[in-house]
Design goal:
Blueprint (H helix, E strand, L loop, with lengths): L2 E18 L4 E14 L4 E7 L9 H16 L7 H11 L4 H19 L3 H4 L6 E3 L2 E3 L4 H13 L4 E5 L4 H15 L4 E5 L6 H13 L4 E5 L7 H10 L4 E3 L6 H10 L4 E5 H4 L2 H13 L3 E5 L5 H14 L18 E3 L2 E3 L2 E3 L8 E4 L4 E4 L1
Parallel strand pairs: 5-6, 6-7, 7-8, 8-9, 9-10, 10-11
Antiparallel strand pairs: 1-2, 1-16, 2-3, 4-14, 12-15, 13-14
Helix pairs in contact: 1-2, 1-3, 2-3, 5-6, 6-7, 7-8, 9-11, 11-12
Length: 365
C-alpha cells in the first residue's frame, strides 16, 4: 500500500469576531489543508495556517513547498512507515515549519485511519475530551470586561487576555477583566512580544501588588530577546511562558540553558508537526519546564491534531486550543466540536474528518 496522491486545498473562512493581538488583526482563517491519499482511497489531512507576523508562513509558500518538494517525496511511498516518512519530511527542506507540520499531521492522520483508531490512540492516549482556554482579543478595558463576562457565561473558566498593544493601559485592562469575572476564573496574559523588558516587569509587578491573580504571562518581550526574557522571569513571581521564542528543539535548549522562562507553548505550525512537538514536550518535562499546547488561527484539522497530542501527552497548564471556536462556519466536514470549554474529539479513525466543504474552498491539486 502506498501514497497515491498529495493534494492541497486553499481555505479561507470568516471569524465570528475579529481576532486582535499586539502583532496583527484578522477576520478570517487563511490556511492550506494538505490531503494524502493512499491506494485504498483513504485520506489523511493536515494544515498549514498562514501567519505572516508570527511564523512567516503563507498559504502560497506552503502550497509551493508541498507541491514542488514534499508531495513528490511522498508519492509512491509506504505511509505505514510513519517514523521514517516524518523524518524524511523534516530533512527535506529548511524552515517551512507550517508546510512540514501539515504533511506530518496528514501522515499521522492517515496512519490512524489505516489502523481504524482515533489519532489520540495512535499517539498513546485515550481521552477524547480536552479542556481549553478562550482568548479575549485586544481592546479597551470596557470591551474586554464585557467580552470576559460573555465568555464566562459561555462556560470558559480560563481566559487568555491579549495585551501588549498599549503598555500604559494594560494594568487597567487586567483589573477590569478581573473585576468583571470575579475570583473563580483563571486569567492568563499574552503580550505577543509587545512589551520591553522594563515595561513587562513594571506591569507584572503592578498586577502582583494589586492581587489580580494572573496565572501566567506569555511572551512578554521580543522573541529574539532571550536575555530580556530571562531578566523579566528573574524579577517577577508570575510564571513566564515562552511562545514565539521557541520554534524548535534548539530554541528550547537555549531557553532552558538561560533559565529564560517557566513554561513553553508548543505549536505544531511552529515546530513542524506532531513528531517534533512530542520531542519538545518531553524535553521540557525532563528539565522541569511547564507546558502548554497552543495553535495559530486554524480549522478543526490543526486543532484536532493538537488536541490529540494533549490527549496523549498532557500539559501542565490548560491547553490553548480555541481557534476553531472562532470560526463563523466550519470548512471541515466531521472532526472535533466544542462543548463549552472542552474540545471534543470524535470517536472515529484519525481526526474523524470526512472532507472539506467544497463550496467554501478553493482546491488545487
Amino acid at each position: 500500500m502506498t501514497i497515491s496522491a498529495v493534494r492541497t486545498h486553499r481555505v479561507s473562512a470568516p471569524l465570528h469576531t475579529p481576532f486582535v493581538t499586539a502583532l496583527r488583526r484578522t477576520t478570517t482563517v487563511d490556511t492550506l489543508v494538505v490531503e494524502l491519499v493512499d491506494t485504498d482511497g483513504r485520506s489523511g489531512f493536515g494544515e498549514a495556517p498562514q501567519v505572516w507576523q508570527v511564523t512567516g508562513a503563507s498559504v502560497g509558500g506552503a502550497q509551493a513547498c508541498v507541491r514542488e518538494l514534499l508531495g513528490p517525496l511522498l508519492t509512491g511511498r509506504d505511509p505505514d512507515d510513519l517514523v521514517a516518512r516524518c523524518a524524511e519530511v523534516q530533512r527535506a527542506v529548511v524552515g517551512n515549519e507550517a508546510a512540514k507540520a501539515a504533511v506530518d499531521v496528514a501522515l499521522h492522520d492517515l496512519a490512524a485511519r489505516r489502523l481504524g483508531v482515533p489519532l489520540v490512540r495512535l499517539l498513546g492516549g485515550t481521552t477524547l475530551r480536552v479542556p481549553t482556554d478562550v482568548t479575549l482579543a485586544a481592546g479597551d478595558a470596557a470591551d474586554l470586561a464585557a467580552a470576559a463576562r460573555q465568555r464566562q457565561a459561555d462556560g470558559f473558566g480560563v481566559l487568555k487576555l491579549k495585551v501588549g498593544t498599549d503598555a500604559a493601559g494594560d494594568l487597567d485592562r487586567v483589573r477590569a477583566v478581573r473585576s468583571a469575572v470575579g475570583a473563580g476564573v483563571r486569567i492568563r496574559l499574552d503580550a505577543n512580544q509587545g512589551w520591553t523588558p522594563r515595561e513587562a516587569v513594571r506591569i507584572i509587578r503592578g498586577i502582583e501588588d494589586a492581587g489580580l491573580d494572573v496565572e501566567l504571562v506569555e511572551q512578554p518581550v521580543a522573541r529574539w530577546d532571550l536575555d530580556g526574557l530571562a531578566w523579566v522571569s528573574d524579577r517577577v513571581s508570575v510564571p513566564i511562558l515562552a511562545d514565539e521564542a521557541v520554534f524548535g528543539v534548539r530554541d528550547l535548549v537555549e531557553v532552558i540553558r538561560r533559565r529564560a522562562a517557566d513554561l513553553v507553548n508548543v505549536k505544531l505550525a511552529k515546530c513542524g508537526g506532531l513528531q517534533p512537538a512530542r520531542t519538545l514536550l518531553e524535553l521540557a518535562a525532563a528539565h522541569g519546564l511547564g507546558t502548554v499546547v497552543g495553535s495559530m488561527m486554524e480549522t478543526q484539522v490543526g486543532i484536532g491534531a493538537a488536541a490529540s497530542l494533549v490527549g496523549a501527552y498532557g500539559t501542565t497548564a490548560v491547553a490553548d486550543l480555541d481557534a476553531a471556536w472562532w470560526l463563523a462556519w466550519t470548512p471541515v466536514r466531521g472532526g472535533l466540536h466544542y462543548e463549552g470549554a472542552t474540545v471534543v474529539l470524535p470517536d472515529a479513525p484519525g481526526l474523524g474528518i470526512s472532507g472539506l466543504a467544497e463550496v467554501k474552498m478553493q482546491p488545487r491539486s
